[in-house]
Amino acid sequence: MAVVLQVDFPYAGPWGEAMHAQMADLAVSIAGEPGLIWKIWTEQPDSNQAGGIYLFQDQASAQAYLDMHRARLAGFGVPQVNAKLFQVNRPLSLIDRAPL
C-alpha cells in the first residue's frame, strides 16, 4: 500500500530559484531513493520552514527514507524534523485526481 511521508523542519533559506540552484543535485539523489514514487518540495520563507511531501510504494521504504533523512538533516545542523506517515486510500484518492 502506498504511503505518504510529510516532513517539515526549520530552514533559513535560500528560497525559490536560489534553493533550486543549491539543491538540484540533492533532488536528483532523492529521485533515486528506493520506493520513492514522487516528492513535492515545500518552502515557507515567512516562517523559515522547508520540507516535502513524498509518496512511497510502501511503509518500509518510507520509514527507511525518513530514518536516513533525519540523520542527513542532523548532519546539516537541523535541530528538529517533524514527520508523519500516512497510508493512502487509493480508491478515494483517485476520485480526487491524486497522481497515483
Automatic annotation (TrEMBL):
Gene Ontology molecular-function annotations? monooxygenase activity
Which InterPro entries is this protein grouped with?
Dimeric_a/b-barrel (IPR011008), YdhR (IPR014910)
Q: Would the keyword Oxidoreductase be found if you checked this record's keyword annotation?
A: yes
The protein's UniProt keywords, in alphabetical order, are:
Monooxygenase, Oxidoreductase
NCBIfam families to which the protein is assigned, alphabetical: PRK11118.1
What is this protein's name? Monooxygenase
Can you name the source organism? Stenotrophomonas koreensis
